[in-house]
Amino acid sequence: MATVEEGPLPYNLWQGESSSSSSSSSNPTDAVLFGGISLLIGVSCRTLLRRTTIPYTVVLLVIGTALGSLEFGSNYRLGKLGNGIRIWADIDADLLLAVFLPILIFEGAFSMEVHQIKKCMAQMLLLAGPGVLISTVLIGAAVKLSFPYDWNWKTSLLLGAILSATDPVAVVALLKDLGASKKLSTIVEGESMMNDGAAIVVYQLFYRMVLGKSFGSVAVLEYLAEGSLGSVIIGLVFGLASLFWLRFIYNDTLTDFSLALTVSYIAYYTAQEEAEASGILTIVALGMVFAMSKDTHRAGGKQSLHEFWEMIAYIANTLIFILSGVIIAQSIFSIGKFEDNTGRSWGYIFLLYIILQAARTIVVFVFYPALCYFGYGLNWKEAIIIVWSGLRGAVGLALSLSIKGASGDPKYLSSETGAMFVFLTGGSVLLTLIINGSTAQLLLSLFGMDALSENEETMVNYAKHQLLRKAEEFSRICSGSNNPFNWRTVGGYATCIKDVCEDTVWPPCTTNHGYLEIDDIKTIRVCFLKATREAYWSTFNEGRITASTISILMESVDEAIDLATQGLHDWNYISTRLKFPGYYKFFSTSVCPSSLTRWFVLNKLQDSCHICSAFIHAHRIARQLLLDYTGDNGNAAIVVAESEVEELEARKFLENVKNSMPEIIRQTESRQVAFSMLKCLDECLSDMEKDGILTEKVVLHVHDLLQNDFEKLLRSPPSVRIPKPGDVLSIHPLLGNLSPAIQSDLERSTNSILKTPGCTLYTKGSKLTSVWLIGDGSVRSERSPFPIHCPVDSTYPQGSILGLYEVLVGKPYLCDMVTDSVALCIEIKLESIISVLARGNEVEELLWKECTIAVSKLLAPDMFKKFSMQEVRGIVDERSVMNTFSSQEVIETSHHSINLLLSGCLRDQSTEQLIECPAILPCSILSESIPYASTNIMGESSGSYSYSKYKVVKAAKIVQIDISEA
């Protein structure tokens, strides 16, 4: 049997075999040990500092500095841990940035609110663009004039560029710990990310100049523009391509995470190495593109996505802050090789810290008027917080390490200069993080920016009373229990409601069942809008709205919260998004393929219906919740009334869509019902799984089938069927009665076009080319053909034939015809109509009768607007008579009828006025606003005429419509 000999442990964590041979026995895997110990330290710090106001990143930096000091500044080496520290401390600066920055910058940009970014963009650009340049000049000039290092202006400005930008890694970590307001966090975080990217572009410019490359003023501007704008463009391209890819992924969070992580690294490498741009700005743009789409994730997926990025950002933060401390310690002890008096060097670090704060203060207050004007504005307290949040961190350290690695040539950058860059940058990072980072919470408290407002205090008390009521309810349930327990012991753990408990003796007893009373109507509106937002989320997770609509709904809530002092304005934002943009008119032209037009227009219309339905549903839920919590008090009643007015507007939109394109509403409802059915089936499957009826293999199999159905519904929802021209012609009351041969000839010359609202079919006086049949939707007439004061504005719904009258009389178009909604317009070529007219008098009479419908609505809009299209057609079919009169005949009108002059020319015998077609002849029921009418619409004579006589000048065709019973 083999024996085991005792001996030393094969692996000693802290102590190498001997101090003299520790460096020679260094193993690359020792770097893993340092990473593991760093993460363990990070978890410990987060646990110990959880309920304190000390930012854990500051503690990590101090611990890293202590570890580095033990390894580099003392005789007590840390063995294999020390070997790992040295491996990490000697890491290439570009590799350091490439490993950590894509994760940290992407997480920071992704976690920001898009709405806040839009509002604060001008402020961020001011501080990140001109602010960086001013700060670079100020710091560089101060270093050149105050420090005794005999550096030229280029070298001084290079150090100024490194130190000019606040570090996004440090700032984001600090603000998350302190819980600053969202507005302030957005400005500081966004500015830090952008100005760090801009500073790297400036740094690269001066770095090349220090190494001997010359730039003219124009070349400098071109370089800065290309470096910044090019970076943003690369980020946008990668972001949009990624979102397009994600459209083909359904319910696969692993792929979502992997794609975002992969693209962030590839985009950074492409910008930084291949395009020689700023990788940071690229990642900022990429993260913001992903942030704009994060609302399209379902609740579980969105939560997982945030947790994933928070986890990897936490790991990266822990490693980079401890490593920064190690590098700072290394720079402190290595500067002694070049400086005889290191105490003096520390004095210059403190001087540099003062310079940094002064430069930051100057930049912020130079732009203070503009910062107050743009976005949400800014007060002096917030400006001071922005100044104090100017932390320096790992990015500046990495850039200084790059300078150190490139130094060595006395002509350009000496080794002493490279070491001094790392020392000064490391000292600045250490001081800003320790001094500013540790006192930022104190400053927030001093300004009262972390305190609860009066309304928030009211909400806290209300929440505590609600918890007290729940405790009372629980006590009643437990009162009948036979198990012995001590109520005072139980109550001792419910300290959160101790100050509102009306009874000092448990079980609790309270008579406060009141409502939440808030006097500020703005707060009531904000609460209502947040309840609306949660209702939107529920609707989205239930599948009642699509991913393409949830972003608009969320944005409407954010916009309305900003305007909460003025009323509820979420519908105002939504209504602007429901309108078809101007470029959609291109899709309504014959240049664009009809299939592409239908896809764009119908998708837009379906999304609009989804938005309106979700808006109505969410507002109903929010109104009920508001009344449940606040009661029907004055402010709540006002907000409820405002919500009801907005709901009415949304209902009008849906009603208009239903009237113009009923198939849209039908298919929208079908999609929602289909999803609800599949959701019900999924819940049924889950119930059977919980009850243990099905085996795991069976559940997985059926679940996969259900997921396929869900994905099919997402990819191919119920489509809207657009009728073909032949179908529209066959069901038309007139054209459907024509012979099959004529219908076939017409169909061959038709062109079906789906037009958006506001598209012009034809204009007044233009050359006659086509006749238009309205298959769905409606159009309206504009620009009256008559010289009257009241403009003609008649609406022509489905089934109307426009331009036919002009064909029969040989005139140009009488007025403008513009689509009033999304309309399916069937264009029939002029040649085809002329060929139909040649088929015989019977067909011509049918066409004359059909054109009477359009002409009557054009000439007498006030009379016929109260009738539907079907009713107008019935009146013309049953109560109209068409007569043809020869020249020189005398005609007498009847006061019981409307007489329309369709062709020819008449002369009024009483006034000798010449009347040309088309015209409406006076009768006793018409308004004076109608051409040549002499009586008003109430039947009261406006003159002495009950009838009129006309002499036919040119052969005339007159339609007499009996409206005595209409």
From TrEMBL:
InterPro entries: Cation/H_exchanger_CPA1, Cation/H_exchanger_TM, cNMP-bd_dom, cNMP-bd_dom_sf, RmlC-like_jellyroll. It is found in: Membrane. The chain crosses the membrane at residues 56-75, 95-112, 124-143, 155-175, 227-246, 314-336, 348-371, 383-401, 421-444. Residues 734-850 form the Cyclic nucleotide-binding domain. Gene3D superfamilies: 6.10.140.1330, Jelly Rolls. The keyword Membrane applies. It catalyses: K(+)(in) + H(+)(out) = K(+)(out) + H(+)(in); Na(+)(in) + H(+)(out) = Na(+)(out) + H(+)(in). Residues 1-25 are annotated as: Disordered. It is a multi-pass membrane protein. It comes from the Eukaryota. This is Sodium/hydrogen exchanger 10.
